[in-house]
Amino acid sequence: DWAASEKHETVFGVLPVLYETTASGEQLSIPEAEAIEQYLAKKFNLLGDQGDVWDEIKVRAFASSQQGLINYYFLRVATVKDGHFVGNKLTLADLKCAFAVEMLMALTGDQYVSEEQTPGLWTVYKTVNAIPSLVAWKATEEYKSLAEGNLRMVGF
């Protein structure tokens, strides 16, 4: 029962969170997927030659560039015909797509994604956003408060 018993203990009240224990026994909570990814890359010496700041910067820059390519491909090239990426039922891929489309629209309007420009992605977005429980959640004050807070946090 994470939401009732542990959610309030996380840094941002959301998952993912990586819990690590230091050599001295201190427990650390690392929130957010990208922060976790960066921490693990550093921990497992995946940021270039250890101690070489420029190597680390280059690795981070190339990793960021690769993520940009993935995002570009995903949002501009990938197509879906029936409203789902895999099979004929809702999957994590569908949810991630709908979230990405929503965030992109919040930041750029219809500059990069729309029914005309990206019909497959738009179909997934509309399919996911027609789920009755999601429609009900988005109508709640809690959702509206979280959405407003997120937009304020990024400067909108």
Provide an overview of this structure.
Strands 1-2 form a two-stranded antiparallel ribbon. It has helices at residues 2-5, 33-43, 53-76, 92-108, 119-128, 132-138, 141-153, and strands spanning 17-21, 27-31. The model has no long low-confidence stretch (mean pLDDT 84). A hairpin with a 5-residue loop joins strand 1 (17-21) and strand 2 (27-31). The protein contains 7 helices and 2 strands. By secondary structure, the protein is mainly α.
Identify the notable features of this structure and list them briefly.
single chain; 156 residues; mainly alpha; two-stranded antiparallel ribbon; 7 helices; 2 strands; 55% helix; 6% strand
Compact overview of the structure:
The chain is mainly alpha-helical and 156 residues long.
The secondary structure category is: mainly alpha
The rounded distance between the terminal residues' Cα atoms is 33 Å
Q: Strand tally, please?
A: 2
Q: Could you spell the SSE succession in H and E letters?
A: HEEHHHHHH
Strand content: 5-15%
Computed Rg? 19 Å
Biggest beta-sheet profile: 2 strands, antiparallel
**What is the approximate shape?**
globular
Biggest sheet, spatial arrangement of strands: 1-2
Count of helical segments? 7
Low-confidence stretches: none
Helical coverage, percent range: 55-70%
pLDDT averaged over residues: 84
InterPro entries: Glutathione-S-Trfase_C-like, Glutathione-S-Trfase_C_sf, Glutathione_S-Trfase_N, GST_C
Pfam families: GST_C_3
Protein name: Glutathione S-transferase
Domain GST C-terminal: 1-146
